[in-house]
User: Fold this.
Amino acid sequence: MHSTDVFISHAGPDKLHIARPLFEKLQAHGLNCFLDKISMEPGDCGGDEMTKAMESAKVGVFILSPEFAARKWTMRELRCFLRRRNEAIGSGMRPPTLIPVFYRLSIRECRELDPNDDERKNMFEVEKFFSDERQREASTDMVKRELQELAGITGIENDERATNLPGDAFGHLARANLVERVFLWVKKKSEEDSSDEVREVLNASGCTHDVFRPCILAEHNPEEIYLQLNSRGIDGSPNTCEARLKEAVLSTDRNTSIGATATGKGGVGKTCALRAIAHDDDIKAQFSGGVYFMSLGKDANVGRLIEQLCMAAKASGGKQVAAEMREQSELSRVLTEMRAWFNTRVCLFIIDDVWAVNGIDACILQKLSTLAAATGDIRERSRLLYSTRDPELKQVGKRVTFEPREREGSDSVHMLMLASGANPEEANDPRCKEAVREILKLCAGLPLALNVAGTGVRYMRDRWEGEKSQAWEAYLSKMKSRNTIRSESPGDGYLLSLDATLHASLEIVESGMGSDAERLGQFSFRKIHRSLCVMKKQDGMPLSLVRELWEMDYESAEKYAIQMERVGLVDLHYDKDCGWVRMHDLTHDFAVQEAQKEESVTVWYKKLADVCKQGRGLLAITESEGRESKDAREKYVFENIYRVLKQGGCVEELKNLFLRARWVKAVIQRGSVWQYEEAVKDLNSVLRNTGGSESLLRDTGEEDSVYAMELMMRAARLSVPFCGESSAGIYFQLYGRIKHRASELGSVQRILEEIEEHTPRPWLQPVSECVGRAGGSLVEHIVLPNTPITVYEVGMDSTGGVYGLYSNPGGTRITAFAQSPDKEMKMTKLDNDFGTGSRELTCGCVSMSKRYAVIGYSDGTLQFWSVSEKKVLWSVCGHESQVRSVAMSDDGKRAVSGSEDGSVRVWDVDTGLQIGDALTAHTEAVSSVGMSGDGKRAVSGSEDESVRVWDVDTGLQIGDALTGHTDGVESVGMSGDGKRAVSGSWDESVRVWDVDTGLQIGDALTGHTGVVSHVAMSGDGKRAVSGSRDRSVRVWDVDTGLQIGDALTGQTGPVTSVGMSGDGKRAVSGSLDKSVRVWDVDTGLQIGDALTGHTGLVTSVGMSGDGKRAVSGSWDKSVRVWDVEKGSTVHLGKLKDWRDIVERFLNAENLRAVSRTGHRHKRLKVFESGGNIVHERENGSEAVLAQLEIPVNRWEVDDNHGVFVAAAGNRVAIMKLVV
Assistant:
């Protein structure tokens, strides 16, 4: 027998109409249920199998009736679950879920049972309860106490017309409704248990890899919500809005394959329809990959959208994927990772209440629709379902418009009656018919107003002492008591109707308090409801924070929130034992309007700001390590503090917060850099607008603060790829990226001092330029797929969009990529086996129009491609040897190619013919070519270290060769007008040239950690883009021509070895460029010129204790001893004599070798691990102290003087080891 999911306990008379239909529905849903003999197989022992089932079931359903209490077996089953529940709670374990179904016993009857009642006037008289056999099983008093305990557990109660008579006949609809409600509740609980069980198994196994788990990430609608997803008219077509929307989602019509969009005003039921669709059986059967509900709202920005996408990924098992998505600063990259995670799985993504606001553009639905699969069977694709009230939004898929219901139509009546809990027939009861009709008219068919009115009536009926039908008239009088609505129906039947119901709800809960309660300073529901104007639309506020806003204890706040929920003023839900208060958008608008009439919204924001700052202040939030806070209040404050302080007018406090390194550290740890960046930009705009002119900003000192915030913002963004969750590692990044401005800006100096004070020990304090500067000429870092690739070409169009080609390591597959100015990335794989035969793929490019591409081969062949059609247009052979580089004009009509034969050739793409003669002048192979936008000028770079510009029409060179690189030119590019050229070299630098004058513009742009293999320029020549063998693409500001920092990048090849003087004041490095360089640790500057003489790469270096002499070994099999002061060779020997030479001239062992072999035994335990510099904690775990932009390959540490020197690529990083 399989393990039991659900155990159904019942008495015999209740089997046919309740127990068996429920059993069949749950079994059909895939749950393994136990229902006495139905669940047994031949040979099973009844008692044993039943005991196993009730001891192991995750969910127990108990259908209560008088016979249930009188039966020995049913009460034994109940007693078993009560025992299991109490034992689990007592031991801190998850208890089984116990669901009482009050079928023919009411909650009131069970609650009012008196164990001391001797008159026995209760339901136990139905059968011979007091038989001798029954008394041996349990006493009467025990059974009564057990049923009383059951009444205290949340259950499902039947229609109030139920009696205690076993022959009571319920209507078919009433029984079916009860079964459906129980089924939905059991299914929900089973799904929750299953999700938690999988999580516990993964945790127990120590598994850290993401495992996809489809789920339904959506809340259930309250039971009183009336919807008809499967309603159809006489012709068989859907006849309700929600039914039409469901049909659109399930449609296999290719024109609506993306999904659907629900439109309409607020409060007409769109959100409820979306939630119902998420839990619909047909929907779940179609979308096996799960359903993921996300909510935005009018206050949302791109940051909230990204967070909602991350939550969907995490809910499906992608915890690490979600963490990586949060680190991205662009929505397009988040969508790329999200699509890769869900891959080919068939999912439904529901995004509720989308607006084109706060950086979310009008085309957002099209961008999000990339989550739907674009290929394959249309029945097996993911879909998207949206809702919106924004007419400016460009919609996708089939549009379904939701409208208010007919004022007195059947739908409106059903909604009102269901929400009120009244018998539907009561609508026609003469005693309340007129009041019901009037309430329906005043609600104007608005579902939200009908629901609020219904819950208000329910609240009054539950407390009504007289005839309950009179509650309708009483409620109507409260609706009319406010001046917001007259006795006749409102003009547009929309917002006025909702206002009237909300005012009525407040009147109801304030009954008995007196009209002057608020004026006298007493408690007022109106006041605490107004206070919720500070909430964010479509978002909740933790009750732990709400109670501080309301100035009361948690229990009181919870009590009042429950009361307001019962009259439709708020929603109260619980997540991980924390209560959350939410409101519908229109109810929130009502709270805002009421606050504006009284004390103003700003007053409440200021109060909330004060509440957030209570205790140890906002910076106390930054003390917790890790990505997420377990405290709901702290998490909410962290995510909303910018909005709260800004709306409360606390700009100065907000500025001071953003200038705190501890706050920025927490931003990085929690993956909130995108939101922080948007907030800083907005705050700086506010400061500039309120501060006046730039000169006034300087006079008031605000210019310092504005620049420092922008600097920290850029530092945070650049640091994210190199940060884990270690505070020391994050502070290393921030410190290293802003310290160059400390002497000029007091704010930056204070930030550095804060880092020095608060960074946990030990930590590495950057001395030299260990990481790239924030605020330099690097504008953006585009990371391509994290696999070995070759970037063949990158370009930039006039709008700032970046495009290019790259291939896999074997050169057998080529992908064209394009990133638009708003950072949307598109990849197109060209379908061809490029690496077959004797020829090899050597180069390629794509036109700025993204329509054409040209590919070059090792045998001199060129192929011209149509990217959109993914087909070859022409294949020609024009060069005598390997094609090294190709480029195209903007329109793709002309192409230029350069070859190892030293020639440059121009082509007509339409015909595949060469234009004019070959262009010759280079003395060595042409490694790269470029072309102006109009195709009239071409530029070429060569291994002869020169750059040349050509007039395509005449075939003549323009001016002299452009020289300056210290190694072969690997790539060139040209501005659209042909007036500027850019070149990248093996010396790892990028240089920009004025073609007309032949002069270099500014200094070399450095920052790549590998050969700059590809460069290009924007049409106006103001920006350049470069691609490197370090697998990165970087964008540069050409006008400033500034180098990124004063990094120790004098060597033109990777650093192979480092050493240090005995006093820790000097360091030495050796490189593949065959040179040795010496550095001043205190200043980070090179001492003298490079020490040259080796004819092979330098493999090892060392230094004397006083730093005056250095030793180096090389692949040229020689060892050289250097006089650092004079820059000359003291001794030249053989590599095999290394040890003798070291002892003779330096009087010390090679410091690098000593430190590498002995450092793990040092007290501090700081060393290199996995390319990072780490500290080994006492428990054996490793904390990253520093991660450079490429892995560390050589390192040196001096414990005595607290100096750490590391080599990473061509950079030497000098750091102070602070204990």
About this structure: The first helix runs from residue 15 to 28. The chain has a mean pLDDT of 77.
